């Protein structure tokens, strides 16, 4: 609610981050995904930090969160924050294909079918994010 400013007097991304972090540290894998995003995006609730973003996405992925797995694909394809590995990226996409999340299955399938293009796009996106100090928030 603090993240979106709903049900509160005002939007407070730093308060949302505090709650996400507390929940992630208690083992909530959905919160781990949120924390990973907070460290990846510019100017919202946490400072841009690739290492911390990767850490939380890996922790969530190890807990079975396919959204975290899909984000890790970006890192492994680009080599940003991790050793570049097409093999690990493909493995994560194949695991995502087995999930019950229809939208994620469709995205994973599309990325596997056009793997070379996906690598080029994800590499450019992640390297630009590093240059800019984070991915700018959507408007």
Summarize the topology:
Elements: H1 13-25, H2 29-40, H3 50-62, H4 66-78, H5 86-97, H6 102-113, H7 115-132
Helix pairs in contact: 1-2, 2-3, 3-4, 4-5, 4-7, 5-6
Report on the structure:
It is a single chain. The protein has 139 residues and is mainly alpha-helical. It contains seven helices and no strands. The relative contact order is 0.12. The model is unreliable at 1-10 (pLDDT under 50).
Short recap of the structure:
The chain is an all-alpha fold and 139 residues long. It is built from 7 helices and no strands.
Record keyword descriptors for this entry.
single chain; 139 residues; mainly alpha; 67% helix; 0% strand; disordered N terminus
Q: How would you sum up the major sheet?
A: none
Structural class by secondary-structure content: mainly alpha
Residue share in helix: 55-70%
Given as residue ranges, the uncertain stretches (5+ residues, pLDDT < 50) are 1-10
Strand content bin: under 5%
Shape: globular
Gap from first CA to last CA: 19 Å
The beta-strand count equals 0
Indicate the radius of gyration in whole angstroms.
15 Å
Order of helices and strands: HHHHHHH
Mean pLDDT: 88
Give me the number of helical elements.
7
